[in-house]
Amino acid sequence: MTAPPAGNPAAPATAERERLNPLTSFAVAGSTAVMTTAAASWPWSLTVVAACIVLSLAAGTAHRVLPAAAAVMVPLGLSLLVLHGLFFPEGRTVLAAWGPARITAEGLDFAGQRTLQLAAVVMALLVFSFNVRVPDLVAALSARGVQGRFAFVLASTLTLLPAIARRARSIRQAQESRGLVISRSLVSRAAAFRLQAIPLVLSLIEDAGTRAAALEARGLGNAGPRTSYRMVPDSTLQRAARSVLVLLSLAAVVVRVVLAGTGG
């Protein structure tokens, strides 16, 4: 192993990330998403978003994580704002009204909290996706008894969000260069979404077929024992931490269900 180049500020962060097992990173991201959803608290969600921004800046992936998060959250946030901001049945404080549509303070508050909660979940998963190495994740899953093909498919799925965001952006740019104009009206946006979604889904299906053929050619569908030549470091402390995170996630879900059942 060669020493990291002198004067490279990203080298310590990279070395630290390489000592972290991918399953530990996945456990942190997954448990964060579960506990954020169960907590449904805007201070917690805001803390998670801030922590994800700091981690992506420290890892040098903020220039990829933040645009991908924006590509996912902007349409979701706008849809939540329209749905709950204008048509929130529990809204009492009416700020403006146009026929059946009413902008209420309660609806805006609910939409803002749900948007922040979703942003925390999306950013936690994106930080993991942009920092994990697929070969390391496949090796770690295989070492835990997960079959080779399933391990590769699972690892590819977990890291698919960045690829989808890049591909969707490329499709939109290509269609805009051919004359596609997206106005502010809902009809125009719906038509543009259909024109972009169809080639995106078709390209993902084609990519899945190519990956499946490559996996079959490399014998990942064959049964029998396997030998991995890629060693991924792990430790007792990390295994214990993963178990604690899983227990905390389950506890958060149980508490949320109990509170919902008692009206809390």
State Rg.
Answer: 22 Å
What count of helical segments does DSSP give?
A: 10
- Oligomeric composition of the shown chains: single chain
| Overall average pLDDT | 76
Q: Proportion of β residues?
A: under 5%
Helix-strand makeup class: mainly alpha
What's the total number of strands?
2
In spatial order, strands of the major sheet run 1-2
Q: Which blocks of ≥5 consecutive residues have pLDDT under 50?
A: 1-17
Our measurement of the CA-to-CA distance between the termini, rounded to an integer number of angstroms, reads 55 Å
Q: Please give the largest β-sheet.
A: 2 strands, antiparallel
Please state the overall shape, judged from the principal axes of the Cα atoms.
globular
N-to-C SSE series? HHHHEEHHHHHH
Helix content range: over 70%
Protein name: Energy-coupling factor transport system permease protein
Keywords: Cell membrane, Membrane, Transmembrane, Transmembrane helix
Membrane topology: Multi-pass membrane protein
Transmembrane segments: 26-59, 65-88, 116-134, 240-259
Comma- or semicolon-separated keywords:
mainly alpha; ECF_transporter_component; two-stranded antiparallel ribbon; single chain; disordered N terminus; 74% helix; ABC/ECF_trnsptr_transmembrane; 264 residues
